[in-house]
Amino acid sequence: MHITSLTLANFRNYKNASIELEQGLTLVVGKNAQGKSNLLEGIYMLSTMRSSRASSDADLVNHAILESDTPVARLAGTVERSAGHLLVELAIVGQGKGKQRSGKRVRINGLEKRVSDAVGQLSSVLFTTLDIDILAGPPIIRRRYLDMMISQVDRGYLRAMQRYQMVLQRRNRLLKQVQIGKSDISELGFWDHELAHVGGILFDARKNALIGIQASVNEYMRQLSDQYEEVSVKYRPAIGTMPIPKGTTDPDQWANCLLEAKERLQKKEIETGTTQVGPHRDDVEIRIGNLPAGAFASRAQLRTAALSLRLAESNYLRQNTGDEPVILLDDVLSELDAQRRESVIEHLKNFPQTIITTTNEEHLQTLRTFANKEFKVSKGKIS
After folding, report:
1. Residue 319 — φ and ψ, nearest 5°?
2. Using an 8 Å Cβ cutoff, are 235 and 189 in contact?
3. In this predicted structure, what is the pLDDT of residue 96?
4. N or C: which end of the chain has fewer CB within 10 A?
5. How far apart are CA 102 and CA 58, in angstroms?
6. Window from 74-83, 119-128, 243-252 with minimum mean pLDDT
7. Pairing between β-strand 371-378 and β-strand 231-236 as defined by DSSP bridges
8. What distance lies between CA 218 and its chain's CA centroid?
9. What whole-number distance in Å separates Cα of residue 149 and Cα of residue 196?
């Protein structure tokens, strides 16, 4: 799979930019805060329909048009893949002076689609300097890593995730109503079963995904660290004090575990007005050697482990789609020593298309020996 052309209009600091892309390695160079990261973010949005860093869609629309009647950012990418030619078009509608509804609109090969149906049509993996937070940051970042990876290959998972968030919000509101005596405790039954049903789907998919990437995460870590280090990932589902199901499990078994956990914690949930167990509180335990990565690993180890997780993600996407994903790297070589940089560059040669940003002149000279194309970004303009 590879992108052949990309257009950005009123997206971040880009007013209007179009580029033609080739297979192999593409370099994107320029000083800081010129738009290099925004370019990769735009490509990744065409894969996941979600920003890798914005807290709201309004942040994605060029500030110069936010006060207009129709503040719309547009992204379009043409893609060649084993299933045939693909044109993905995404419009991000901000809240302007007009009466249009904010949100996203998407078309695939000219036909309007639900946003969820467009996720994963273009498959990509994004590496950024913030990826060490997957290991050292809070659990929500590790859940996001899993969600973005699985959603690109499993639309059922994406729909279950959306349903789960809706049910969770309604159940939490009901818990608060029960707490103050405005609703009866019996009303929780329906929402408990709804939450357990979709929660079981999420539990099962997350467990299977982590089992699927464990071997390749460890192998990449060994290769990138010259055989010195190993990394392990272990799923920590949020089911309270319930024992984690052993052996073969399925969504129904997970759902039953979640229901039993809720029965045990019902009093506490009513007292707090919040759902205490479920996929929204999951975590992933990541260790380098025998030590928790977030607490004991060096910066270089964290960076290498994060790269290993992303490379394992690329394997997962390829195995589930039949296509190699587009690889997007945002200044990820900056904190690696020479040996680790060389190992990363060697791995990049194996992908049909890699787009990498850098500001480092030393790294640039090395990368130019492998690059097929180079772009310069300055103040939201690409040349």
Report:
1. -65, -30
2. no
3. 63
4. C
5. 9
6. 243-252
7. unpaired
8. 20
9. 22
Q: Collect all residues with Cβ–Cβ distance below 8 Å to 293 and sequence separation of at least 6.
A: 135, 136, 231, 286, 287, 301, 302, 305
Domains with residue ranges and CATH for the chain: 1-123+323-383 (3.40.50.300), 131-322 (1.20.1050.90)
Q: Give the mean model confidence (pLDDT) for residues 27-49.
A: 94
Residue 97 has pLDDT above 70, yes or no: no
Collapsing DSSP to helix, strand or coil, 146 comes out as helix
> Dihedrals φ, ψ of 206, to 5°?
-65, -45
CB proximity list for 284: less than 8 A, separation 6 or greater: 139, 142, 143, 145, 146, 210, 233, 234, 235, 236
pLDDT band at 358 (very low <50, low <70, confident <90, very high): confident
Least confident range from 169-173, 191-195, 202-206, 328-332: namely 328-332
DSSP state, residue 171 = H
Q: What does the alpha-carbon distance between residue 90 and residue 109 come to, in Å, rounded to a whole number? A: 11
Number of other CB atoms surrounding residue 263 within 10 Å: 9
Q: Which amino acid is it at 116?
A: S
Q: In the numeric block, which tokens belong to residue 314? A: 């690329």
Mark residue 103 as left, alpha or beta (left: phi above 0; alpha: psi -120 to 50; beta: remaining): left
Q: What is the mean pLDDT of residues 181-196?
A: 95
pLDDT band at 140 (very low <50, low <70, confident <90, very high): very high
Contact 181, 273 (CB under 8 A): no
Q: What DSSP line would sit under 239-292, residue for residue? A: -TTSPPPPSS--HHHHHHHHHHHHHHHHHHHHHHTS--SSGGG-EEEEEETTEE
Q: Is 293 helix (H, G, I), strand (E, B) or coil?
A: helix
Position 248 scores a pLDDT of 67
Q: What is the pLDDT of residues 320-331, one digit of tens each?
A: 999 999 999 998
